[in-house]
Design a protein that fits this description.
Blueprint: E1 10-17, H1 20-36, H2 41-62, E2 70-77, E3 81-87, H3 114-121, E4 124-129, E5 135-142
Antiparallel strand pairs: 1-2, 2-3, 3-5, 4-5
Helix pairs in contact: 1-2, 2-3
């Protein structure tokens, strides 16, 4: 993969199984690209947590561990940004319909904070429907000038 400082773009795409082993594989792939892109250690850690949560959501909530369905991962880095896209083949969801994870009645729930965490760890975050089915999330981490 090209060095971040060269100005060349890097793009890696993978089709992953709908299991938790794929979460480790996908996170490792993104962290490798982030390292080569020059992302600092603390920022790589935050990005890794956001990617891990996105992949877990795709496997667990999107594909519901269905072995016939795949998780799509794309990571690209150029001079000023690292972009990660995670897609699933599930039924999709409306993020605005999710309960507020910071509401008092939700504070002790064991799930429901993943999207909030992802948003806290990346510079840009977007959820969209994936065609023909599923959900796709876009994570963007801005890179410091070389």
């Amino acid at each position: 993969m090209p060095d971040h400082s060269s100005g060349s773009a890097t793009r890696v795409e993978r089709l992953l199984a709908s299991n938790l082993d794929s979460v480790d594989i996908g996170e490792g792939l993104v962290l490798e690209v982030a390292l080569k892109a020059g992302l600092e250690e603390d920022e790589r850690h935050r990005l890794g947590m956001a990617v891990r949560e996105s992949l877990v959501n795709a496997v667990v909530h999107g594909n519901r561990y269905d072995a016939r369905k795949k998780v799509f991962l794309s990571v690209s880095a150029n001079r000023d940004r690292l972009t990660v896209t995670v897609g699933d083949e599930g039924e999709g969801f409306d993020p605005s319909a999710l309960p507020d994870p910071l509401a008092e009645e939700n504070l002790l729930r064991q799930s429901g904070r993943g999207l909030l965490l992802i948003q806290a760890f990346v510079d840009e975050f977007e959820v969209r429907r994936r065609e023909p089915v599923g959900t796709q999330v876009l994570l963007v981490k801005r890179l410091a000038p070389a």
